[in-house]
Amino acid sequence: MLKVKGPNSKYSIRTDCEISDTIFSTWQETIDLLAKVTETPAALIMRAHAKEIEVFAASNNPENVYPKGAKEHLNSGLYCETVMSTEQQLVVPNALTDPLWDHNPDIKLGMISYCGLPIKWPKGEIFGTICILDSIGRDYSKDQIKLMQMFRNSIELSLATLSNANEESIKRQKAEQNLQSWQTALNEIILAMRGRVGKGFLDEIVCVLGRILGSKLVYIGLMSPDGKAVETQQIAVNGQLCNNRRYSIETSPCERVFSSRETVKTKHLSQPYLDEINLNIPNLQEYIGAPLMNSEGHVIGVLVILGKLDKATDSQFFENIIETLAARTTGELQRVKAFDKLQDSQQELTNLLEKTSALKTQAEEASEAKTQFLGLFSALLSRKRCRPPSNLLICMVSDNFT
C-alpha cells in the first residue's frame, strides 16, 4: 500500500488505488439521489490529493456550480478541509452569519450553507468528503444527516472492498515475483551443481548457496557419535570454504531440527552457539536449518544457512528448495561414505595382492635355488664317479629337501 504523508502532503492519503468505472457509477447515483432527497443544488464527493482537493463526483442537477474534476489548493479555508482535518461531521447553516466562515471561498460561488462528513480508507487514511451545499441558509435535519451517513458508509465499504482487492493483487504480484526470484535462484543452483557428485557437490553447495542467497555462513553438519554435538563437514563463509567446527547441539537451533525433524527458521540465536561457531561474523540475524535424514528416517545432520537472507522470504517455495537440497545433500554424504568404504576395500585388496605377489616371488626364488643346487650336486657326483645312496637321492628330489 502506497501512503503519502509528510511535507508534501497535508493528509495521510493513498495513491495506489484507482476507482473503477463500476464503483464511480454507483457513487454518481448516490450523490444524484442525495441531492434530490435533500433538495440541495450541490451534492459532492471530494477527494484529497497531496496539495489539492478535487471534485471527484458531482450531482448532475443544473443548479450545481461545482464541475466534476475541479480542483482547489489546500489551506484555502474550504469547509471540506475542516472535515478532513478533524475527521468529524461539519454543519454550517449560514456562513454569512458565522464569523468562522464568513470569508469562506465557497461564498463567492453563492454556497452559504454546508453539511459534510469525512470519507476514509479502511485503515484510516483520508479519501475526502461527502457533502451537500445550498445557496440559502438552512438547517439540516437528523434524517438528512443520517441519510448522508448511510451513503458515506456505503462509499467506505466500496473503498474497503477496493483496498482488499488491491492488497490481494499486491500480495499475488509479490508472490509471483518471489516465485520468479526463486526460480532464477534454483536455475543458478542447478547450473552451478551440474555434473558435481560426492565431495565435489558438498564443497560447492555451501559456497553456491552463500553466493546466491547473500548469506554469510552456510554449512553441512553431522551429529557426533555421542549425539551431543554437531560436527561440520563443509562450511563456507561469504561463499568461501573454511575450517570445520564442532558445537553443542543443546545451545543451538539445530536441537529443534533434530527433535522436530522439520525445517526450522528463527532469528533467536544464542550467544553460546555463536561463540562455538567462533567465526567472528557480524549480523548473523537469521537461521534456517533443514534436517538431513537417512533412508530409515533418522535425522543424521543439518543443512544450515545463517545471515541476513535477502532472498529468504517466508514463502513455501523457498522452504521446498532448501529441503530438496538437504535431501540431495544426504544422498551425496551417503555416496561419499560408500566411496570411502570402497576405497578402503580396494586398499585391502591391493595390500593382499601385494602380499600374495611377494609370497609367489619368494616361492619362485626358492624353486630356482633348489634347481641350481640339484644341478651343482649332480655335477659334483659326476666328477667323483660315485653314486650316492638311493635314500639320499630320493630325499634330495623331494619337496622336503632343503
Account of the 3D structure:
- It is a single chain.
- The chain is an alpha+beta fold.
- It folds into two domains: 3-168, GAF domain (Beta-Lactamase); 198-339, 2-Layer Sandwich (Beta-Lactamase), CATH 3.30.450.40.
- Helices cover 46% and strands 22% of the residues.
- The chain contains eight helices and 15 strands.
- The strands form three sheets. Strands 9, 10, 11, 12, 13, 14 and 15 form a seven-stranded antiparallel beta sheet that branches. A six-stranded antiparallel beta sheet has the order 5-4-3-8-7-6, with helices on both faces.
- A hairpin with a 5-residue loop joins strand 7 and strand 8 (126-134).
- The longest helix has 69 residues, at 316-384.
- The model is unreliable at 1-6 (pLDDT under 50).
Write the layout of secondary structure elements.
Blueprint: E1 3-6, E2 9-14, H1 21-38, E3 42-48, E4 52-58, E5 71-73, H2 79-86, E6 90-92, E7 113-120, E8 126-134, H3 142-193, H4 198-213, E9 217-223, E10 229-237, E11 240-241, E12 246-248, H5 254-260, E13 264-266, H6 271-277, E14 286-293, E15 299-307, H7 316-384, H8 390-397
Helix pairs in contact: 1-3, 3-4, 4-7
The domain count comes to 2
Give the strand tally. Answer: 15
Quickly give the structural class: alpha+beta
Query: On the 0-100 scale, what is the average pLDDT?
Result: 83
User: What are the segments in which pLDDT stays under 50 over at least 5 consecutive residues?
Assistant: 1-6
The CATH architecture designation of the largest domain is 2-Layer Sandwich
Tell me the series of helices and strands, N- to C-terminal.
EEHEEEHEEEHHEEEEHEHEEHH
- What is the share of helical residues? 40-55%
CATH class of the largest domain: Alpha Beta
